[in-house]
Amino acid sequence: MSEPLILKLKKRVENKHELFAGGLHGSNEGEEVSAYLGGNVSDYNFFICRVRKWNEGEEETTVVVSVTDEKQFFRLNSALKTYYATFAITITSDNKVKFQCCDLEGWEWKDNIQLEKVWGI
């Protein structure tokens, strides 16, 4: 009997490989910043990325990037519905991650929003 799909997925997520750890953030409004990943992007099917605001409550979110070389937009929400950040992540085929804080509502400083971790699955 075949193993259920949910168990297969659970095992894959548990076996994630850390490709980036740090605090990648831009200091200017809308600035795109990049870093090299510690692995070969083509070895993975998708990427899990953790983004957080590192002060004033330390809100965070975890998103899945499922394609390479395409900018994908996400939102980091706060407990207050009027506070949020829209950000973009691109995983490139040349083993880089690009991060950009595109829009900020309520909070004052864009450089407090950072890409903290990237895992490959």
Architecture blueprint of SSEs:
Blueprint: H1 5-14, E1 17-24, E2 32-36, E3 47-53, E4 60-65, E5 72-77, E6 84-92, E7 96-105, E8 113-120
How would you describe the overall organization of this protein?
With 121 residues, this protein is mainly β. The model has no long low-confidence stretch (mean pLDDT 86). The protein contains 1 helix and 8 strands; from the N terminus they run αββββββββ. Helix content is 8%, strand content 49%.
Considering the chains and any ligands shown, give keywords for the structure.
mainly beta, 121 residues, globular, 4-stranded antiparallel β-sheet, 49% strand, 1 helix
Q: Specify the structural class.
A: mainly beta
Helical content class: under 10%
Mean pLDDT: 86
Spatially, the strands of the biggest sheet line up as: 1-8-3-4
Shape: globular
Contiguous uncertain segments of 5+ residues: none
Portion in beta strands: over 45%
Helix run count = 1
Please compute the radius of gyration using only Cα atoms: 15 Å
Question: What would you say about this model in short?
Answer:
The chain has 121 residues and is mostly beta strands. The protein contains one helix and eight strands.
